[in-house]
Amino acid sequence: MxxxxxxxxxxxxxxxxxxxxxxxxxxxxxxxxxxKITGRRVARxxxxxxxxxxxxxxxxxxxxxxxxxxxxxxxxxxxxxxxxGVRAVERSLTALARMRAGLDLAVGPL
Amino acid sequence: xxxxxxxxxxxxxxxxxxxxxxxxxxLGDLTEDLATRRSARGRLVASLWLVQEIHSLHRAYGxxxxxxxxxxxxxxxxxxxxxxxxxxxxxxxxxxxSALVTLALGIGATSAMFSLVHAIVLxxxxxxxxxxxxxxxxxxxxxxxxxxxxxxxxxxxxxxxHTFAGLAAFWSPSITATDAHGNPxxxxxxxxxxxxxxxxxxLPEHGRSFVAADALPGxxxxxxxxxxxxxRLFGGDPAIVGRELLLDNTPTEVVGILPIGFDFPRTGxxxxxxxxxxxxxxxxxxxxxxxxxxxxxxxxVGRVRPGVTLAQxxxxxxxxxxxxxxxxxxxxxxxxxxxxxxxxxxxxSVRSALTILFAAVACVLLIACANVGGLxxxxxxxxxxxxxIRQALGAHGLRIMRQALTESLVLALTGGLxxxxxxxxxxxxxxxxxxxxxxxxxxxxxxxxxxxxxxxIAVVVGVVCGLIPAFxxxxxxxxDTLRTVGRGxxxxxxxxxxxxxxxxxxxxxxxxxIGAGLLIQSVIREQRLxxxxxxxxxxxxxxxxxxxxxxxxxASAAFFEHLLAAIHDIPGVASAGATLGLPLDPxxxxxxxxxxxxxxxxxxxxxxxxxxAALHVVSSDYFITIGVPLKHGRWFDARDRMDAPGxxxxxxxxxxxxxxxxxxxxxxITHDLxxxxxxxxxxxxxxxxxxxxxxxxxxxxxxxxxxxxPQMPWPSLAVxxxxxxxxxxxxxxxxxxxxxxDRTIAVPAVRPLEHVVVDALGQPRFxxxxxxxxxxxxxxxxxxxxxxxxxxxxxxxxxxxxLRMALGATPRxxxxxxxxxGLTLAIIGIACGLGAAAGxxxxxxxxxxxxxxxxxxxxxxxxxxxxALTWIACYLPARRVRRIDPLAAINANP
Lengths: 110, 894
Known about the structure:
heterodimer, A: alpha+beta, two-stranded antiparallel ribbon, 4 helices, 2 strands, 51% helix, globular, B: alpha+beta, 27 helices, 15% strand, elongated
């Protein structure tokens, strides 16, 4: 799968959350952000695995930040959305918007 | 810093699924979030939350591993793949065992063969800068036949060459050494130039090497001894250096002990004495000074100067040989020089045989690869759906290929390990059967090089076997596979690959079978060959060498006469005889010389133009003892004393060649070789004996002359005894008979003459046996492959067969349909194999005896045999078609 292939919904959510969090985008924060804004429950493992995959696709990049005492002396991995990631999100959202255009999604009588 | 218990527990839990690179960060995230939860919701809720989170991680990463969508370090994922592969193999034991056995056989046979080739051919000789060492010969320009070098020629060439750092000459007598208890023992010795050890680059373990002064006439007698001899006779006492030893009853000072393993020039050499050469006086009293330059007895080894190429050294010596030919036209007519790398001389006799055997074992390995590749292909088919699902879930195609590769590598390396064990025990089993005259056979072992080589072969096998199915699967359409797996269609798509593998297997194994068949028939024909004598019931004793004081003609004639009489008196002995050398002894050429001769009444010829024949010295009862028939005339008898008129026997070949239309008896021959230097002897032919293959089974019998021992007394003769007493019972009596005449003479072991004949067949028998084993393994593997393919075809087409039978086909017809598929492959394979064999057996022709490389019987019988086996291999699985229940087969949706 290349970076040209369309993103899954969960991937879009993660990229958007990371964009919102900027310098604070750890796996944990990204998950909290998605849960807070969409109001749906997200499995921690799914977030990590998907972020690994997005990094493999070079849509995300990451670096290790210094350990802190509140983390039990463990390092923190900070993610940053790459330009390719931004473009991929835009492409996916544009595609969704185009598909939606002209549709009345109000639930009416069948 | 010690971490709280819960962190350590969670760490261990995560270790099972989360990749190591991420583990610390994820644990950090959990720690931070847990603290927040605890303060907001309390300990209990936080703990429940933690369990839920860990579960989620396990699920996510566990799934990622199965679908191959997770990213991680290469090593990490290869390790995961390997573990996954092992689990998979454990679940399919039948597949795993058959693949492992096949691989172990193929790889094991290859690495055993490699260890032989490595020790005998590839490994440099155990001397420093061994590539500078060459063997130097005289060579007949007209025929290209090489001979040893005469002492005067050797001395001239040593002094006048410009390309050698040193040239050393040697020859191998056997010397009698007497131990501390006064028991004589025969030792294989080398009489060598004082600089032999300098040329080879070998230093003594104790003491010193020879120096030029040791080789001067009248110098004190000195010797160097081998490590084994030192241990055996002197218990490894270094103080032996400087002490005296009785060699051929002459006190000789031991000046040096050579390191362990050194036995140049021949396996088993344990004693070295300096060669004392005179420029004018031949060492053998039978040779006149005039003949000295043509007395070619020295083997010569040389070390070329650094930077000198073989071609330069050759040109140098050929130039010198040209000069010597001009200076001494009588002795050096038609003679030039040959320079051959020493390792080619050492391994030359077996090099081509080993190459052929190695090619054969490579074929076995190829068949093993094809079989395992085929098995993996079938396994791959069964798992195509799994692979497709993983791909649909986002696993990369290459990633799945890597997994397949890891799986086959795990299999191949395990098989390689088993093969290595097999090779080790196989070598132990098979080396004792290797002919003793195989050069460097003692150096054969599974060493580091062999292990590395085996691992490399296993990796190659793994990649080849793994890539075939992985590559085929890569091309397949995802959704198509998902839809059709198990319905038979997808199997058909790759059937041609398996078909090709089976055709190749059958073809290769037929080629090997035909090669082995030809070699085996050669050996059988050689065994049935009329050797001209009856070895059964005859015991042989290698040459008994008389000490110098008994070497005079009268003394040695008397000694052997008394000895043979004493042996004849031993109860159970029917007759006893003596000869210069035993027939078919590999050293026969060394013991029996050729002599030129002229026939009385014919026009005299120049010595160089006279015919020549082997000149044997035998006792009167020699022929009766070994069972050679008298064709015309009479045997030697009591009349043929030393002072009686000279007589000789000739063999039938000589009678036919020189008296084709005449009776040779009564004709007189003058032979030029005699015990009195330069004095020709005239003898009357009194009888014609049957031909004996004296110089080797594969050599056509040449003209041979036999002279009675009393008329040409020789100080060393081999003894033959016709008896019904077993050798072990007779040997003590024979030793007593010898020692009753002289206590200082070493008596070689008594062995059946049949063993000498069997040993002469050693190399051909061994070649045929090894190639036979390889061909047999190839055949078994090919049949397993064919069986597997047919069985697979039955499984694949069971639905179709069910349908056919439902539509009215009888089980017999359905079986035939499947059988036909397998047989077609076999026939194509046999046709290809016949073509390949026709080309390949030509290579074998130098090893064939009395059978052509395209022997029609072999080329018909073996394909027929293979066809019969093929039929069985196909019929057994095809029979299962009869058991198919049409209804069940049609409804089945695997």
